[in-house]
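2024-03-11 09:14:02 DEBUG pipeline.ingest accepted 1 chain
2024-03-11 09:14:02 DEBUG pipeline.ingest length=545
2024-03-11 09:14:03 DEBUG pipeline.predict start
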Amino acid sequence: MDDFKNMIPPQASVKRGNEWKDVEAKELVPGDVVKIRLGSQIPADVILLISKEMKVNNASLTGEAEELLRDPEEKAENIYESPNVAFFGTSCTNGEGQGIVFRTGDDTAIGRIANLTDSAENKQTPLSHEIERFIILISIVAVVLGVSFFLYGLLIVEYAPVDMLVFAIGIIVANVPEGLLATVTVSLALTAKRMHAKMVLVKNLESVETLGSTSCICSDKTGTLTQNRMTVSHMWMGKEIINAELNWESYKKTLESEQKKKDRGENGEPEKVKEPNYNLGDKLFRELIKTLALSTVTYFAFEPAVDEVKEWMRKDEKKTGRKSTAFPKDRKEWGPELERLFEDGRARMQEEEKGRRFLKRMTKGDASETGIVRFITPLLMTEYDGIWDQAGVADFPDRLAQFRAAFPPLRDSKGSDVGIPFNSSIKFNVLIRDANPGENNPRTTKDNATIYLKGAPEKVLKRCSKVLVQDGSSEPYPVEFDAAMQFNVNAANDRFGLMGERVLAFAKTELDPRDFPKSSYVFDTPGWNSWGDDKADQIDTRLES
């Protein structure tokens, strides 16, 4: 419960007496108008009145790390999915906004969750129940035996009362299993140690016995049974399932290392390095990689929190033998010198992050997309013989950012990206990108806009009419998404599902400039939530998967 207190921001900007004032967040009351800035935590449950490209991260509430755009004009029946609401404990990751407080403290969404956690009953485990029964039984037997022998010796044998009392106490003590506690504790500890070797962490030793007799465990998966870290495992394309567990960067690094060993005369064996099952020269695979890059928005970014920077600096100072820097708890008391040291430490952390492999680097965005961008980024890099060899990468943090910039999303009159964000009600998201920014008056589909669709297979596939396939080394070409092809796709989808994998489908369509000129056509994406799924199904999107 103390962890929830740390989620309360120390200060909140609130409008009082027609003036903006910084007050302690715990002093907010329903009806206060608050200002939310980039990087700040939401101080209470807020209904937004103004939003300037404001996005929030609801991971602390829902477990999903996707950044969600907030819009005061849009509403939803489910308050947790309503775009005009920001919740206490979540963070503002982009833009800024203003809103009116409608719930504070224990009444907030996360406060109610905290109260439910606090009020949860601590039921007795089966093992402790059995031990309690055993102790009661042994106690009864010991007392009965002690009293029986005491009366027998006193009345029948006629021993002295003091002698019989000592004898009775001895019998009672002898029947008490003094080693029971140590035996049970050691047995459970050894069992827990064996389970730890199999990657099972036992927090309560008494639960070991219960876990051993369990036949079925029902649990939320993401963040509970898993770490919310996803990687690409398999792909389906060209009527084939391809194993993609081996990351291209890992393969190239291992190959390079073995080759260097061989060149130095050591036991390097580059010819024995396992190769990926996918072929970077395959034109259909290259088309898939491009689609994955342009269908996603997650990007590499590392913004360490204040405590993370302090901890990193403490370890760095200890390693180098320097004196530890003491930071006051309140940042207002730091002063220019401490601020400079802190920013220097943060910069060094970010520089260190850039030297890590993409599989280990931090991202901003959805966990599913994180796995995808970590997989595709090395495939775009010329350093690893990738497919994107354009110059000017120094202007971008990585090849993925450069590749996306070459096919930028279309913008509406407000300067926002044209597209549909992912939502649990529709289970897909849409991005519309410019296929050739250098051509303002396109005459072919290759120079016009392209729609990219990503989402649940059942939602994406029913909006597709064609599938890209390839014969040998030929150029990929579309074929009808007929019953036979649907059977093939559904079989792959079912196989992935049985392996416990999260399955995503990707599709795209190139728009005809005669019907959808990119420079003048107004896409109706802001009103997507008024379509309804039935209406969306009737739209001829003519997608190619």
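2024-03-11 09:14:41 DEBUG pipeline.report The radius of gyration is 32 Å.
2024-03-11 09:14:41 DEBUG pipeline.predict end
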